[in-house]
Amino acid sequence: EDQVTQSPEALRLQEGESSSLNCSYTVSGLRGLFWYRQDPGKGPEFLFTLYSAGEEKEKERLKATLTKKESFLHITAPKPEDSATYLCAVQDDDSNYQLIWGAGTKLIIKP
Amino acid sequence: NAGVTQTPKFQVLKTGQSMTLQCAQDMNHNSMYWYRQDPGMGLRLIYYSASEGTTDKGEVPNGYNVSRLNKREFSLRLESAAPSKTSVYFCASRWDTIYFGEGSWLTVV
Questions:
Q1: What is the pLDDT confidence band of residue B50, given thresholds at 50, 70 and 90?
Q2: Closest chain A residue to B58 measured between Cα atoms?
Q3: I want to staple A10 with a disulfide (CB 3.0 to 4.6 A). Which of A4, A33, A106, B46 is the partner?
Q4: Residue B84 CA to chain centroid, in angstroms?
Q5: CA–CA gap between residue A3 and residue A91 (Å, rounded)
Q6: How far is Cα B85 from Cα B16, in angstroms, rounded to an integer?
Q7: What is the dihedral of CA B87, B41, B92, B6, to 10 degrees?
């Protein structure tokens, strides 16, 4: 059964303190892994899509990496405005549309 | 650009009442989704529409119906609401990337 687990559930960092969020997944074949950011009271906002192990993508202070079993979202020198819940989802090769979503990691950056 | 627009933003229903959530997208996407989001759980798919005139059940379709009225619009009807339907509902559309609406907060009392 396809599964996505995100850890930690919550992470509190000081401004400038770099860290990583984890997304572990189980699928028969990976079509794509997606990272989203969600602010309170808003819909998820797309960040990255990764397709194959070894792939990396960057956007400002965020960098997403992918292995055959997990993905990391690295946050370098975060700022308070990076505070949000970060969601991970995977699409199995067998599905044309179904994504399996993790429960998210709530990131709080203190000034 | 409006993207994906959902209405209403907030709704309170009494147990047994019915209502329809409206969704429209202006990105000319074929695929549209309805999800619900509950605390501590990932987004769960209620219904999916691959194109105008087609709909498929997702993980949690019981108690819901959908209509893909045209390419732009995909509505979700909640029949005879129960407190278990209290949730945040998101409509989304997709070409390659999934784009979400702002959400509809539904409380059933």
A1: very high
A2: A98
A3: A106
A4: 16
A5: 10
A6: 11
A7: 20
B59, two tokens: 């993980």
The reply to whether residue B42 touches residue A42, judged by beta carbons under 8 angstroms, is: no
CA B58 to CA B20: how far, in whole Å?
18
Q: In degrees to the nearest 10, what's the CA dihedral of B32, B71, B56, B105?
A: 50
Digit-coded pLDDT (tens) for A29-38: 999 999 999 9
CB atoms within 10 A of CB A86: 24
Q: Is B97 in CB contact (< 8 Å) with chain A?
A: yes
Nearest Cα neighbor of A49 from A89, A21, A10 is A89
Q: Nearest CB to A97: which of B41, B50, B101?
A: B50
Contact of B47 with chain A, judged by CB distance below 8 Å, is answered with no
CA–centroid distance for A10 within its chain: 13
Q: Is B100 on the interface with A (CB under 8 A)?
A: yes
pLDDT in tens, B60-101: 999 999 999 899 999 999 999 999 999 999 999 998 899 999
Q: Touching check for B31 and chain A: CB below 8 Å?
A: yes
Q: Specify the higher pLDDT residue, A57 or A97.
A: A57
C-alpha B18, offset from chain centre: 14
Going by pLDDT thresholds of 50, 70 and 90, the confidence category of residue A67 is very high
